[in-house]
Design a protein that fits this description.
The protein is built from 6 helices and 7 strands. It is α/β, with parallel strands linked by helices and 192 residues long. The protein has a 7-stranded mixed β-sheet, with helices on both faces. Strand 2, helix 2 and strand 3 form a beta-alpha-beta unit. It is globular. The two termini are 16 Å apart. 33% of the residues are buried.
Length: 192
């Protein structure tokens, strides 16, 4: 019997490095998910080229072309109707989704955040952790709920903060762990 794979829509705004780590995991026939769509709000997002190179359907919806967040999200919803989506993966998607959009997809949107949630929600996580004298940072994959970076955690990975770390050096080490745990978190959701 063939493994039923979760159908993923990956939302990106930039280079798509987390998308690429999931794409690599999906190449394994035993991996319980497949990417059926890559969607971006930025026409110049580098990750779109990666998706196209791998034959993954793409949708480009420039948020700047819409007069409201709701109109932008209505267009996203309309495009998603063309795909059979089980799970939306936010992978560097730099738009905050409205409560009404999130509530259309209960327990079906996940995000990765570069801190050990619930610590350091929002932006500038690495600089804030260093400034506070923390000895470790990390990343968290969590379910998305209407409250920013507040949904239930699925998986975390800790990264030590080293003497002399800058936000940039810490970000590099945290990103390495993001690439490992995002595919793992999807397996957890799939029940594997």
């Amino acid at each position: 019997m063939a493994l039923k794979k979760l159908k993923l829509a990956i939302f990106i705004s930039g280079r798509g490095s987390n998308m690429l780590s999931i794409l690599e995991a999906c190449k394994d026939d035993a991996y319980p998910a497949e990417i059926v769509l890559v969607l971006t709000n930025r026409p110049d997002a580098k990750g779109i080229d990666i998706a196209k190179e791998h034959g993954i359907p793409t949708e480009i919806i420039d948020h700047k072309a819409f007069s409201s967040r709701e109109d932008f999200e209505d267009e996203i919803s309309e495009r998603l109707e063309n795909y059979d989506i089980d799970l939306i993966i936010l992978a560097g998607f730099m738009r905050i989704l409205t409560a009404s959009f999130v509530e259309q997809w209960p327990d079906q949107i996940i995000n990765i955040h570069p801190s050990l949630l619930p610590d350091y929600k929002g932006l500038d996580t690495h600089a804030r952790a260093i400034a506070d004298g923390k000895t470790e940072a990390g990343c968290t994959v969590h379910f998305v709920i209407p409250d920013l970076d507040s949904g239930p955690n699925i998986l975390q990975r800790r990264v030590p903060i080293l003497d002399g770390d800058t936000p940039e050096t810490l970000a590099e080490r945290v990103l390495e762990q993001e690439h490992k745990i995002y595919p793992e978190a999807i397996k957890i959701i799939a029940g594997v």
